[in-house]
Every structure is written in structure tokens, then in C-alpha cells.
Specification:
By secondary structure, the protein is an all-alpha fold. It is 47% helix and 0% strand. The protein contains five helices and no strands. The longest helix has 10 residues, at 32-41. It is globular and about 40 Å long. 0% of the residues are buried. The mean pLDDT is 83.
């Protein structure tokens, strides 16, 4: 989980202020495309956050998920 849920007020502040981090041991293992996807998925503003079709179009996801395992959502 990217956020600590033991304190709801802090959790909401952390989400709004994008206070999250990728664990040190994962930094070198994740591609820039993957990090970009994580960053965009955690967008605090719902109007700016990716929708499901945008998620499916992400380069990292398309590279790592079999094409026949998903279909475009209408």
C-alpha cells in the first residue's frame, strides 16, 4: 500500500500532497514507464486521474499483459 491507513486524516493529506514513495529495493527494478503509470494512477485529482481505457493504453501495461486478457471498456 502506498499510504499508511492508521490515521485517516494523514492518509488523505498524503494522497492530496502526493506524499508516497516507492520502496528503495524496488526503485532499480521498475522501469520509468512503470513508475509513470504508478504516478498517474495515484493522481489525487479525479478529473486528471487516468480512466480505465487510458490505463490499458499505457506502454508498460501493454508490454507486460497479454493482449487477449483484456478488452476495451466502452
Amino acid at each position: 500500500m502506498p499510504f499508511d491507513d492508521t490515521n485517516m486524516g494523514k492518509l488523505i493529506r498524503d494522497q492530496r500532497e502526493r506524499r508516497y514513495h516507492i520502496r528503495e529495493e524496488m526503485i532499480g527494478k521498475l522501469s520509468e514507464d512503470c513508475k509513470d503509470m504508478i504516478h498517474r494512477l495515484l493522481e489525487p485529482n479525479p478529473a486528471k486521474r487516468m480512466n480505465i481505457n487510458q490505463v490499458y493504453a499505457m506502454k508498460w501495461l501493454r508490454k507486460h499483459v497479454a493482449r487477449n486478457s483484456w478488452k476495451k471498456i466502452s
